[in-house]
Specification:
The structure is a single chain. It is globular, with a radius of gyration of 21 Å. The strands form three sheets. A seven-stranded mixed sheet has the order 2-8-7-6-5-3-4, with helices on both faces. It has helices at 16-23, 36-49, 60-71, 85-88, 93-98, 115-121, 148-161, 172-179, 183-187, 213-225, 234-246, 251-266, 287-299, 322-337, and strands spanning 4-5, 53-57, 76-81, 101-105, 131-138, 164-168, 192-196, 207-211, 272-277, 280-284, 302-303, 312-315. It is 44% helix and 17% strand. It has 14 helices and twelve strands. It binds pyridoxal-5'-phosphate. Residues 59-61, 64, 85, 138, 168, 170, 196, 198-199, 207 line the site of pyridoxal-5'-phosphate.
């Protein structure tokens, strides 16, 4: 019986068709800019999202870091959500490696950073303060699609206040598919966007940073400094291109399955459904029963991640089908039925 792994959408494995595309990829040395498949991927995303240039990098963490280091200099500051991935789950890289001070802002429940709260955090130009340079948003955030009118307001606000605007769009395509707004329309509101190919899109490795030509030139330099200048990476880029061709529209299936799973869990006494957004379902179960639930699910070849977030997050993706969801529902029912 195959494992239904709900820990994250990073766990997907390349499909047979993706592996064939990888095997057939033309490659060259990307540090020399000579990998045709890497170049094709970069051009594809820059064109699709309406930017001058793009950079293929090993991870979303590195992509965000390079963006921050390219927008900001030593002693600058970036404004970011208190629960944003960039601030909370990337090892403090901007501060550690970029000498960039983060100014966390408490987010609202929908993932937005209220603009008056952001405005209040902007520092005066004065030697006492770090120089506030950049506002970073995340979409989707914990699966939530940030409203387009909010993004538009954030764009106008950033322009008015002379701030650059970066999007951690690890799941930009989930946001686009769920809202019916094109990825390009969302991305165009930002100066730079980081997109993960290795999440719901199902590539094994890689993220892409898009931005202006001068910004990407800086990012390319920092990528080398960070040890991310890779060589014949075309086989990985081929997986990314395959994902963009074949795995975007199908994100709707992940969202539908997450909604179905949420609907079933809501009916189970002992499970407190907190919410479902795009491909993520959030539930609370009594803490005392969490370990037993994990063991019960493991015995049924179902993986969940406990202890990493305060609530239980169940994530659907390419490698979870309808039958897998039914198995999860059955296992939850069996466990809580015995309560
Ligand atoms: C996964 C993720 C990243 C980057 O993750 P890597 O594991 O470094 O590729 C960045 N932002 C968000 C919102 C993510 O979910």
């Amino acid at each position: 019986m195959n494992v239904v792994d709900l820990r994250s959408d990073t766990v997907t494995r390349p499909t047979p068709a993706m592996r064939t595309a990888m095997l057939d990829a033309e490659v060259g040395d990307d540090v020399y800019g000579e990998d045709p498949t890497v170049n094709a991927l970069q051009k594809r995303l820059a064109d699709e999202l309406g930017f001058e240039d793009a950079l293929f990098v090993p991870s979303g963490t590195q992509s965000n870091l390079l963006a921050l280091m390219s927008h900001c200099e030593r002693g600058d500051e970036y404004l970011v959500g208190m629960d944003a991935h960039t601030y909370k789950f990337e090892g403090g890289g901007a501060a550690v490696l970029g000498s960039i001070q983060p100014q966390p802002i408490v987010q609202d429940e929908d993932g937005t950073l209220p603009l008056p709260r952001v405005a209040a955090a902007i520092k005066p130009v004065d030697p006492h303060f770090a120089r506030t340079k950049l506002l970073a948003l995340e979409n989707t955030w914990h699966g939530r699609v940030l409203p387009l009118d909010y993004l538009g307001a954030a764009h106008d606000f950033a322009r008015e206040r002379g701030l650059a605007l970066h999007l951690d769009g690890a799941r930009l395509y989930n946001a686009a598919v769920a809202s019916g707004v094109s990825a390009r329309a969302i991305a165009q509101l930002f100066d730079s966007v980081s997109i993960c190919l290795s999440k719901g899109l199902g590539a094994p490795v890689g993220s892409v940073l898009v931005g202006s030509a001068p910004l990407i030139e800086k990012a390319r330099r920092w990528r080398k400094v960070a040890g991310g200048g890779w060589r014949q990476a075309g086989m990985l880029a081929a997986a990314g291109l395959h994902a963009l061709d074949h795995h975007v529209a199908r994100l709707a299936d992940d969202h539908r399955r997450a909604a179905y799973l949420a609907g079933c869990l809501r009916e189970i006494a002992g499970v407190d459904l907190l919410g479902q957004h795009t491909n993520m379902v959030f539930v609370d179960v009594p803490t005392a029963r969490l370990r037993a639930l994990d063991a019960h699910l493991r015995a049924a070849n179902i993986r969940i991640s406990i202890g990493y977030l305060p609530t239980l997050r169940l994530v659907t993706h390419l490698d979870v089908d309808d039958a897998g969801i039914e198995r999860v529902v059955g296992a939850f029912r069996a466990f809580f039925g015995k309560a």
